[in-house]
Structures are given as C-alpha cells and as structure tokens.
Amino acid sequence: MLTANDPLPCMPQRVLIAGVTGSGKTTLARRLAACWEIPHIEIDGLFHGPGWTARPQFLDDVRAFAAAPRWATEWQYLSKGTLPILTPRAQLAIWLDYPYHVVRARLLRRTLMRSLLRTRLWNGNREKPAWNLLKRDPEQNLLRWQSKTLHAWSERMPRIQAEFPQLPIVRHRAAAQPRRDRALATDAEALSRLVPTLWHKAAHPSNADRPGLAAAGLSVARPHAGRPR
C-alpha cells in the first residue's frame, strides 16, 4: 500500500467508482466526469431494461464503452461479467469505503425521496414503492440488499489487486464525524483536486509541498507492475 501522500502513475482517463449501494457512486462519477471533462456512463442505465428486466445487450454495451479512450462509470455488476471487461481498461479505481451509518442514511434518504416523487430512472422505470423497504427479500428491499453486501468490497478487493496489479485503487473513507460528511459534493471536489495534484507530483517531484490524499482521508493501493493501458 502507498502512503496517503504518494503520487499516482498517470492522470486517469478511465475511472471506476466502487462502493456499497447508497455510498454515492453515481453522484461522484458524474461530478468527477464533469470536473475532468470525460464522459460519464451510468452503468445502471445499461443494465436495467423496461420493467426492471436485465437488458440482453448489457455486456455488449459495456464492451463498447470500455473500448473508448475516456470514461467514468460505477464499478458494478461484477457477477454479471463486467470485471474482466472494465478492470483491465481502467486507469484508476476509487473505492467509497464509508461507515455504515453514512451509507445507510444516504440510501434511506435517496430511496424514500425517489419513491415519494415517483422519480423516473432508466428506460421508463421508477423507484419501487416505499413499502418494499418492509420486505424480507434483499432482491426487493434495498436496505436488506445493502446489509447483505455491506462488506463485499472489503472481501473482493484483495483478489482484484492480485489479479489486476496495474490498477491504482484509491480508498476513500468518510470522516468519522457526521458533520464532516454532509454532502457528496465535498467528496467529489476533494478528489477532483487531489487526483490531478498526485499525478502532477509524479511528473514534477519537486512539488513535494502540494497537498496529498491524507487531507481527505484517502489511501492508495500501489500498482504492483506495469502501466495503465
């Protein structure tokens, strides 16, 4: 593992955002894409067809955008086959590893708001009724799904690092104090400033006085070998 002040090997052009349901992957991906002027591909929109059915062309669409030179997307649907498509192409992964109370509050707030407003999501779908939060089936209840998968990234990251050692992984931890984790905008703004700074430090080592990831509570997994493709 790198220290929180170590530089990244390049200015990333293809970025994956990982994290449990409700951690804010899409919001961060969207904001980073805007800051860095790269396209944001919302992967949920590729997976969900009308009536919440899985689109049969999902993986073909993932392969198509993964082949592009620049993008940011959510790191999801690994069990559906995205891992070997997206991961070799990514130049940076950001893992939103937030405390339970943070992601729980975000998911509950998001789900209730979308349900009450009947928010239109992807391909004509709308958020499911709020009473689904009372169901026991994790496939129907997002809160139970979040609980079921809460530690999934902690369990899979060591395997991913071993299989894809060229990929730098930034682990972003929310501040312990709730007041310091008020908005995803803060997360995105901090990362959008710090990642180019870390790349600049790699290109210009004399700029050692520039702020590092420690200021935002980040740590970086070292790429063991090779260069991002």
Indicate the topology.
Blueprint: E1 14-19, H1 25-36, E2 40-41, H2 43-47, H3 58-66, E3 71-74, H4 83-86, E4 92-96, H5 100-117, H6 142-148, H7 152-163, E5 169-172, H8 184-203, E6 218-221
Parallel strand pairs: 1-3, 1-4, 2-3, 4-5
Antiparallel strand pairs: 5-6
Helix pairs in contact: 1-8
Explain this structure to me?
The chain has 229 residues and is an alpha/beta fold. The protein has a single domain, classed as P-loop containing nucleotide triphosphate hydrolases (Rossmann fold). It has 8 helices and 6 strands. The chain has helices at residues 25-36, 43-47, 58-66, 83-86, 100-117, 142-148, 152-163, 184-203; strands at residues 14-19, 40-41, 71-74, 92-96, 169-172, 218-221. A 6-stranded mixed β-sheet has the order 2-3-1-4-5-6. Helix 1 packs across helix 8 (184-203). It is globular. The two termini are 21 Å apart.
Give the full name of the CATH homologous superfamily: P-loop containing nucleotide triphosphate hydrolases
Order of strands, widest sheet:
2-3-1-4-5-6
Largest sheet: 6 strands, mixed
Please identify the top-level CATH class: Alpha Beta
Give the N-to-C terminal Cα separation: 21 Å
CATH topology: Rossmann fold
What is the chain-wise order of helices and strands? EHEHHEHEHHHEHE
Low-confidence stretches: 1-5, 175-186, 198-220, 222-229
Overall structural domain count = 1
Computed Rg: 18 Å
Shape assignment: globular
Quaternary state of the chains = single chain
Helix content: 25-40%
Approximately what portion of the residues adopt beta-strand conformation? 5-15%
